[in-house]
Design goal:
Helix content is 25%, strand content 34%. By secondary structure, it is α+β, with helices and mostly antiparallel strands. It folds into 2 domains: 34 residues; 126 residues, Jelly Rolls.
């Protein structure tokens, strides 16, 4: 039989353990945001960050990209973001090469989208997408990856179809 004092101690212990659990969860989230290679959580979806290199005719460009490699991450994409770092981007990774289609729903940033085949060669570039547009961006090429970067990036950096990507 539990006494009132025993019940009170159990309640206090439960509350303390709940607070400790919250502190541990908060610390894990904070550490994930601060450690290189651990992307932040956006809309409850955590993205890993990795370096990506684009080899153009003239130079090698290094970006830090968030990886969208699950249905949940690909669906979230860059939606509800107000900005993207100059050297940032998001790489959409699919299991195999095929026809890809994107839209700009809930995306307030104009983007360039680089479509990349299984051999990691840029096969199409959609420049200056229209924010919030529901129009489909579906080039007539097969691709396994799509890289979203700030609008104007491809032109400013001299990125062209045929350039190679590594990650």
């Amino acid at each position: 039989m539990l006494t009132h004092s025993h019940t009170k101690h159990t309640t206090v212990l439960t509350a303390l353990l709940t607070q400790v659990g919250r502190l541990i969860a908060w610390r894990a989230c904070f550490v994930a945001l601060m450690v290189p290679g651990c992307g932040g959580a956006v809309g409850g979806v955590a993205f890993e960050t990795r370096p990506l290199l684009i080899q153009t005719v003239q130079k090698t460009i290094t970006l830090q990209v968030e990886i969208a490699d699950t249905d949940e991450k690909r669906t979230r994409g860059l939606m509800e973001r107000s900005s993207l770092k100059d050297d940032g981007g998001m790489l959409f990774v699919f299991d195999s090469e095929g026809a890809l289609s994107f839209w700009m729903k809930d995306t307030s940033i104009s983007l360039d989208i680089l479509f990349i085949n299984a051999q990691k060669e840029i096969v199409y570039i959609e420049q200056h997408t229209t924010p919030f547009s529901l129009n489909s961006i579906a080039p007539n090429v097969s691709a396994q990856y799509a890289l979203e970067v700030n609008a104007g990036f491809a032109l400013e950096q001299g990125v062209a179809v045929g350039d190679r990507v590594s990650f």
